[in-house]
Amino acid sequence: MATPPQTAKPDLSSLRISDHKRNATRSSFRWLWFLLGAIALTLVAVAAFALRERRPEVEVVAAQKPATGPAGILNASGYITPRRRATIAAKITGRVTSVLFDEGTRVSEGQLLATLDDSDARRALDSAKADRDSSQAAIADYEVQLKNAEIELHRTQQLVKDGVSTQQALDSATMNADSLRAKIALAKQQVLAADARIREQQQAVDNCTIRAPFAGIVVSKDAQVGEMVSPVSAGGGFTRTGIATIVDLHSNEIEVDVSEAYIARVQQDQPVTAVLDAYPDWQIPAKVRTVIPTADRQKATVKVRISFTDATHKRLIDPATEPKILPDMGVKVTFLEEEKPGAQKEKSAAVAIVPLGAVRQDNSSKFVFVVKNDTLERRAVSLGSSRGADVEILAGLQPDTMVVVKGPDSLRDGQQVQVKQ
């Protein structure tokens, strides 16, 4: 019996990884992980060095020389508000035919600002004038007839006296003359009625011209030629309700909201120092004109109106003479206290004024950070009384020294910083 052929088995020995190659592969992976770790450590070190070398950013201000006037006891903010501000509107509904102004135009009282289409009003005026002329012509005709009727009446009376004419003819002549007198009286009343209609229609024509109610400056142009205007909102939003907004710059004043908790510190005629947000280095003397006798329950504030004065805080000045003061500008005010006997010595002890935010506290000591050549220097200071948002420095600092008002809490003496511009 023949032996069956045996199937050849595959030789897998060639696929076996030798111990030497296996060790070499493990060593390559080990070096790769070591290299990646070294790179990561280098990046962390570089980032830490960059962060350590990055200088913190700070905001600085110059210490101010203490003022010789009254000290501030309260701060508030508000806006420049004119007492006389008017949105000019038409008395009737009509289409604008001309606009004779632009924003910034100074206008005088009674100056023509715009006109409306007056064609319908003029036609009605012409009709009323025609009715008056017709009535006046009828009066002239009736007067001629009356003159003839009176002659006829006089003749008939003579004939009746002579017995030639009858009483009936006299009555007829008398009635004719009386009728003409009544017609003349009626025509005169019709003339008066026509004159009244003429005045009415003339007023309608005049209503088509819009004039400035007072002298001022135009701050808003609200309508253009061809648009419809009306004293009331109508037309589905396509009808304008105003032509222009005019303010009287002579009536500019400051309006601020003072918290109810501090309104007791505010008195009428109290001196005030105002600073416009647009001109922070310009201190404007002013004084309290009035405290509005009502409070806003939503904001818990009371409105205070302040007028501009001269440097003595006594004599009022015309704000229109200063072109920098414009309506709706933001303004910050400091209410000042009156000079008191014996207080001059205390005020003179202050050597500088800095914002409260510049003063820092370490345990029981007060200090500020001074910036010199982008380097911080810690200065211990002695504080005096507060002046609104500022505080008096009695010792440790001189005016015009740059002090830090905003910066990280980790600032330290001798640290390099970057001053925020």
Offer a quick outline of the entry.
With 421 residues, this protein is α+β, with helices and mostly antiparallel strands.
Can you put this structure into words, describing what you see?
The chain is of the alpha+beta class and 421 residues long. The chain has four domains: 57-67 and 346-419, conserved putative lor/sdh protein from methanococcus maripaludis s2 fold (Beta Barrel), CATH 2.40.420; 72-83 and 249-336, Efflux pump adaptor protein, beta barrel domain (Elongation Factor Tu (Ef-tu), domain 3); 85-116 and 210-247, RNA polymerase II/Efflux pump adaptor protein, barrel-sandwich hybrid domain (OB fold (Dihydrolipoamide Acetyltransferase, E2P)), CATH 2.40.50; 119-206. It has helices spanning 19-53, 119-162, 167-206, 344-348; strands at residues 57-62, 72-82, 85-88, 94-99, 106-107, 112-116, 209-211, 216-221, 228-229, 239-240, 244-247, 252-259, 271-276, 283-296, 301-308, 330-336, 352-355, 360-362, 365-372, 375-380, 382-387, 390-395, 402-406, 418-419. The strands form six sheets. The chain has a six-stranded antiparallel β-barrel. Strands 7-6-4-9-10 form a five-stranded mixed beta sheet, with no helix packed on it. A four-stranded antiparallel beta sheet has the order 3-11-8-5, with no helix packed on it. Strand 21 (382-387) and strand 22 (390-395) form a beta hairpin. Helix 2 packs antiparallel against helix 3 (167-206). The longest helix is centred in the middle third of the chain and has 44 residues, at 119-162. The chain is elongated. The relative contact order is 0.17.
